Amino acid sequence: QVSELVQFLLVKDQKKIPIKRKEHREHWDAYSEIVNRAGRTLQEVFGLQLVEIDTKRHTYILINNLPRPEGKYLCRDKEKEKMGLLLIILSFIFMKGNSVKDSALWEFLNLLRVYPGKQHRVFGDVRKLVTDEFVRQKYLESTPIPLTDPPEYKYQWGPRAEKETSKKDVLNFVAKVRPFWGHLWL
To answer: Per its UniProt record, what PANTHER family does this chain match (predicted)?
Structure first.
């Protein structure tokens, strides 16, 4: 049962989909020892930690606990471009006071020649990547702004971003790119 749960958690994590306790209820509710052993196996074998990001909905993610050089991400080659874009978006949100309207985010991405309405050769549908994938993966949180017509949203760091990176990493990143894109962060 432990290996079955470990496999389930690893499969869910491959797509960075948060794990809900109710999806595998028989292991979570009845056998806390199985969950604890699965957590130890994930830590010892894969260097991953099972972290609860939403205590009301009992939602979890796996966090990579392997040592890494400062500011470096351990991800598959295919994901590096998306993670690069995500880091740029997280940096922009951070530099703008931890929250940005969607219109400001799209305007910023346009300045980088990443257009939400057009198919990008690396990112595909950028609007879908940001509003669906990054939000579903809990890297970003999207909140409707009340009384706006058409509806507007604001974006903030999501719980996965809070757990997987730090404000220090983001500041280091901004310090590196600012000489090239200084005017964009203002």
So the answer is: MELANOMA-ASSOCIATED ANTIGEN MAGE ANTIGEN, NSE3 HOMOLOG, SMC5-SMC6 COMPLEX COMPONENT
Asked if the model's pLDDT at residue 23 lies above 80, the reply is no
Q: What class, spelled out in words, does domain 77-184 have in CATH?
A: mainly alpha
- List, in order, residues 6 or more apart from 21 with CB less than 8 Å away: 28, 29, 58, 59, 60
- In whole angstroms, give the CA distance from residue 105 to residue 153: 10
Per-residue pLDDT, averaged over 119-130, amounts to 86
What are the extents of the domains in the chain? 1-64, 77-184
pLDDT tens-digit map of 28-58:
555 577 778 888 888 888 788 888 888 888 7
Pull the structure tokens for residue 85: 């874009």
Helix (H, G, I), strand (E, B), or coil: what is residue 147? coil
Is the omega angle on the peptide bond into residue 69 within 30 degrees of 0, that is, cis? no
CB-CB neighbours of 10 under 10 Å: 13
Question: Could you tell me if 52 and 138 are in contact, meaning their C-beta atoms sit under 8 angstroms apart?
Answer: no
User: For 1-64, CATH number?
Assistant: 1.10.10.1200
Cα–Cα distance for residue pair 33/148, rounded to 1 Å = 48
The string of DSSP codes covering 96-130 is TTS-EEHHHHHHHHHHTT--TTSEETTTEEHHHII
> Has residue 186 got a pLDDT over 50?
no
Provide the pLDDT for residue 74. Answer: 47
